[in-house]
């Protein structure tokens, strides 16, 4: 009994000493982070993420300090990238005393993410880092440019455990889906039950991994809310069309979800047929669009590197003139301009 009390007292008496030692170690995180932030700010190396984690100190650092941190960051980065290329990213990386390090995101930007990446540091530093990430999505537990159009940003700060939980869930499901799509070469169907405001479809599309068919099921009120949030279909991406804004004004009238879905089905279906035809003919073909109106298929096919040998559009002269006028001298698309001016119109006149 007496011995155990003595041991307990010894443990308690050592706690303040350990805390004092730890405080000195934690202080090195602050110093190193400020030095890196300053070096990045004056251009020693590129790091778009550190600004979100570390404030910029007003104190100017000596050139020797900047060069020292550059040598350290550059050297470790080169070793890591060589290791990742050698293992084809089938490896794990563990960073001890990670502090405000941003290596994970920088490797991800260079398409060199390891299979698993771990960071270890004092709980107070880890908590501070997670808080600085600002609700996970804003810097990149994961990238999702679409969710901002579907869900408002809450003013309530979420706990780090919640952020990590959602990251694990989204990242895990995303990895499984992408592995499945690559294995089936995208010849598959995906059904999401209780889809809510999920944006998986658009994120898969951005990575060139769209399944043959994608279904979402939820309560009608949620589906309706989601479709309304999409804001007239094109603005987020029933389909992407950066050109239509130059040809057609955005109506203030909100369209019904059924109309949006109908146009999506029509545009998507025609586009799939056209792309299949172009790939089969290796683009050595002609396309003629009757009643083209303000259609932007030509530019969208060109963006996907699938321009046909010749592309014709036919409509009433008034509509053709309006379309040409809307393009505003076509300087936004110089290649399309050159193409148009090189093609003779009926009667030998230039368009």
From the N-terminal CA to the C-terminal CA, the straight-line distance is: 101 Å
Radius of gyration (Å)? 28 Å
> Rough shape?
elongated
Helices and strands: which structural class? Answer: mainly alpha
- Count the strands? 6
Mean pLDDT metric? 75
Major pleated sheet? 2 strands, parallel
User: Low-confidence segments, ≥5 residues, pLDDT <50?
Assistant: 1-13, 135-140, 231-238, 329-333, 339-351
- Would you list the SSEs in sequence order as H and E? HHHEHEHHHEHEHHHEHEHH
Helix content: 40-55%
Oligomeric state of shown chains:
single chain
Quote the beta fraction. Answer: 5-15%
- The number of helical segments is 14
Describe the 3D structure.
The chain has 351 residues and is mainly alpha-helical. It contains 14 helices and 6 strands. The protein has helices spanning 2-41, 50-53, 63-86, 103-109, 123-132, 147-150, 160-183, 200-206, 220-229, 244-247, 257-281, 297-303, 317-326, 334-342, and strands at 92-96, 116-120, 189-193, 213-217, 286-290, 310-314. Helix 12 (297-303) links the parallel strand 5 (286-290) and strand 6. Helix 1 (2-41) crosses helix 3. The longest helix is centred in the N-terminal third of the chain and has 40 residues, at 2-41.
Keywords:
elongated, mainly alpha, 53% helix, two-stranded parallel ribbon, 9% strand, 351 residues, disordered N terminus, disordered C terminus
Layout of SSEs?
Elements (H helix, E strand, L loop, with lengths): L1 H40 L8 H4 L9 H24 L5 E5 L6 H7 L6 E5 L2 H10 L14 H4 L9 H24 L5 E5 L6 H7 L6 E5 L2 H10 L14 H4 L9 H25 L4 E5 L6 H7 L6 E5 L2 H10 L7 H9 L9
Parallel strand pairs: 1-2, 3-4, 5-6
């Amino acid at each position: 009994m007496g011995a155990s009390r003595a041991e307990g007292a010894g443990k308690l008496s050592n706690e303040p000493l350990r805390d004092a030692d730890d405080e000195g170690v934690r202080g090195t995180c602050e110093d190193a982070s400020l030095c890196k932030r300053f070096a990045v700010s004056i251009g020693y190396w590129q790091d778009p993420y550190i600004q979100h984690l570390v404030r910029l100190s007003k104190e100017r650092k000596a050139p020797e300090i900047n060069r020292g941190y550059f040598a350290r960051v550059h050297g470790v980065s080169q070793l890591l990238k060589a290791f990742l290329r050698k293992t084809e990213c089938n490896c794990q990386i563990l960073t001890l005393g990670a502090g405000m390090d941003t290596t994970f995101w920088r490797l991800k930007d260079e398409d060199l993410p390891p299979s698993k990446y771990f960071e270890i540091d004092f709980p107070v530093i880890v908590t501070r880092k997670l808080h600085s990430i600002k609700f996970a999505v804003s810097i990149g537990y994961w990238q999702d440019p679409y969710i901002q159009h579907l869900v408002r940003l809450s003013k309530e700060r979420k706990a780090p455990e919640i952020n990590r939980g959602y990251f694990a869930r989204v990242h895990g499901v995303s990895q499984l889906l992408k592995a499945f799509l690559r294995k089936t070469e995208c010849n598959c169907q995906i059904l999401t039950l209780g889809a809510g405001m999920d944006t998986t479809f658009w994120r898969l599309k951005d990575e060139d991994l769209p399944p043959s068919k994608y279904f979402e099921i939820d309560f009608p009120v949620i589906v309706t809310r989601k479709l309304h949030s999409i804001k007239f279909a094109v603005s987020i991406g029933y389909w992407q069309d950066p050109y239509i804004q130059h040809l057609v004004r955005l109506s203030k009238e909100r369209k019904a979800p059924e109309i949006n879905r109908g146009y999506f089905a029509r545009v998507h279906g025609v586009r799939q047929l056209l792309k299949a035809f172009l790939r089969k003919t290796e683009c050595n073909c002609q396309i003629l669009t009757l009643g083209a109106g303000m259609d932007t298929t030509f530019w969208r096919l060109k963006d996907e590197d699938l321009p046909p040998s010749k592309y014709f559009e036919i409509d009433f002269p008034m509509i053709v003139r309006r379309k040409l006028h809307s393009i505003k001298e076509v300087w936004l698309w110089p290649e399309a301009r050159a193409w148009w001016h090189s093609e003779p119109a009926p009667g030998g006149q230039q368009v």
